[in-house]
Amino acid sequence: MLLPSIFGETLFDDFMDFPKFEFPNIDRKLYGKHAAHMMKTDVQETENGYEVDIDLPGFKKDEINLSLENGYLSVSAAKALDNDKKDKKGKIIRQERYSGSMERSFYVGENITEENIKAKFEDGVLKLQIPKEEPAKVPEKKLIAIEG
Fold first, then answer.
1. CB neighbours (10 Å) of residue 35?
2. What's the CA gap between 45 and 63, in Å, rounded?
3. pLDDT digits over 118-135, tens only?
4. 115 and 97 Cβ atoms separated by less than 8 Å
5. Tell me, which fold does domain 38-131 have in CATH?
6. 48, 62, 76, 78 — which has fewest CB within 10 A?
């Protein structure tokens, strides 16, 4: 039986959410009901920098954008499902695949440039290599000669 999907999957999702006797869903506690729409990310520190792995299943390389502004690296992805396929295959009863956009930002430092960041997209995982920011050099003390 199909029920109207006003609030969630069904009308009763929010009202009938009784506690279950099973292992807790960690993602739901961390991200709430929108856990499926978050970019799951792993960050690993290495000697020379950081390796960032971002899960983007179902996205294509041209649907992902990276930008660097004021020391913040922004990763955004947008996807729209093709509505023309509905007419060719028949009436859609249920659609659970994600369509929409998501974005996430990371502070990488003011001295990092676009050329320093290496990106690779493979098997639904965006792999970034970000070097560690070099500390700003403190100018050496110079003595000022006093005339007289």
1. 14
2. 27
3. 999 999 999 999 998 776
4. no
5. Immunoglobulin-like (2.60.40)
6. 62
With cut-offs at 50, 70 and 90, classify the pLDDT of residue 74. very high
Mean pLDDT, the chain, rounded, equals 75
Stretch 31-45: mean pLDDT: 72
Tokens at 122, concatenated: 């493979």
pLDDT at residue 1 in the model:
45
pTM score, whole prediction? 0.62
HEC states along 45-84?
A: ECCCEEEEEEECCCCCHHHEEEEEECCEEEEEEEECCCCH
Buried b (16+ CB within 10 A) or exposed e, 42-74: eeeeeeebeebebebeebeeeebeeebeeeebe
Distance, CA of 134 to CA of 16 (rounded, Å): 53
Looking only at the bridges linking them, the beta strands covering 49-55 and 72-79 are: unpaired
Say how far apart CA 58 and CA 61 lie, in whole Å: 10
3-state secondary structure of 13: coil
Name beta bridge partners: 65: 76
First-to-last C-alpha distance (Å) of the chain: 98
Domain boundaries, the chain: 38-131
